[in-house]
Amino acid sequence: MLIGGVIFALLLAMPFVMPLLGAGYLAGLIIKAMLMAIAALSLELLIGYGGLVSLGHAAFIGVGAYAGAIALESGIENILVLLAITLVVTGVVALITGVLALRTTGIYFLMITLAFGQMIYFTLTSLAAYGGDDGLTLWTLGTFFGSDIVQNDGGLYFVVLGVLFLTWWGVFRISRSRFGRVLRAARDNPARAEVMGYSVNRYRLVAYVVAALIAGVSGLLMMQHAEFVSPAIATWQHSGDLIVVLVLGGLATRNGAILGAFFVVIIEEVLGSFFTEWRLIYGPLLVLMVLFAKGGISDLLVPRQTQGKTP
C-alpha cells in the first residue's frame, strides 16, 4: 500500500515539476509508461490471478484503438460515446474468442490466444479504408462535450492517471473479492474448485472479458495520446512485452505491473538514446533481472515475507 501511495503521489506531482525538466518530452514518456501499466494490469488479471498465459492480449488493445479511431472518422467525437463503443466492440470480440479459447488450457490456451491475436492483427491490416498496414493518422481527437480536456494539450495526463488509479484499485479489489479467491483457486487446482461447486470456465471467462475491456480502454487512450493508430499495436510481440513487464515488476503483486512498465519504458529510452543496437544490452539485462530478482522489482523494494499476504 505504501509503495502504491508513493507512486501515485509522484505521478500526481509530476505536472508541477515537468516545466522545469522539459514538459512535453517527459509528459509523453510518463503517459506512455502509464498506458503500458494499464494494459499490463489487465493482463495481470489473467496471468497473475487466473494462471492463463495469453499471447494475444495486445489484440484487444488494437481493437479498442481501432474502434475509437473508426468512430472518430465517422464523425463521433464525444469521448464518452467513443468509450462506450470501445467497450461494446472489445467486449463482443472478447466474449467470442474467450468462449472458444477457454475450452483449452496450458500451452494450448497460449497457442489459441496467439492464433486469435494474429487473426485480429491481420484483420486490422486489411482495413484499407483506415490506412491498412501503414496505420491511420487522426486529424480530429475525442472531446469531452466540446472541451479539449481529454487531449494532449488539455488534461490527458490526468485522465490517463485517473484510469491507471481506477485500474490498479479495481484489479486489487477483484483479487481480494470472492471472485478473485475462486479465480486463484482455479489457477492452483481447477479440479478441486470444480468439486467445490464453482464453474471454473465461467469465472475464467468473466476474467478474460474484464481483462479485454481494460485493454480496450488502454487502446482508446493510446489512440488519443498518439493521434495515430497502427496494426502494430496488436502484434503478439506487444503481448510479449506486457508479459515481460509483469515478470519484471512481480507477478500477482499489487504494484508490480506499474513498476515493471516504468522500468521497461525508462530503460528502453535511456539505452536507445546511447546505443543504436540497444536491444543487445536490453536482452541480457532482462535475463539478469529474471535470474537474480525472481520476485520482480516489487519484491526488491518490499520483500514478500514483509508484505504479509499477497493478493
TrEMBL record:
Its main location: membrane. One of its GO terms (molecular function) is branched-chain amino acid transmembrane transporter activity. GO terms for cellular component: plasma membrane. It is found in: Cell membrane. Pfam families: BPD_transp_2. The chain crosses the membrane at residues 6-31, 43-67, 79-100, 107-130, 155-174, 205-223, 243-267, 279-297. PANTHER family: ABC TRANSPORTER ATP-BINDING PROTEIN (PTHR30482:SF17), HIGH-AFFINITY BRANCHED-CHAIN AMINO ACID TRANSPORT SYSTEM PERMEASE (PTHR30482). This is Branched-chain amino acid ABC transporter permease. It comes from Pseudorhodobacter turbinis.
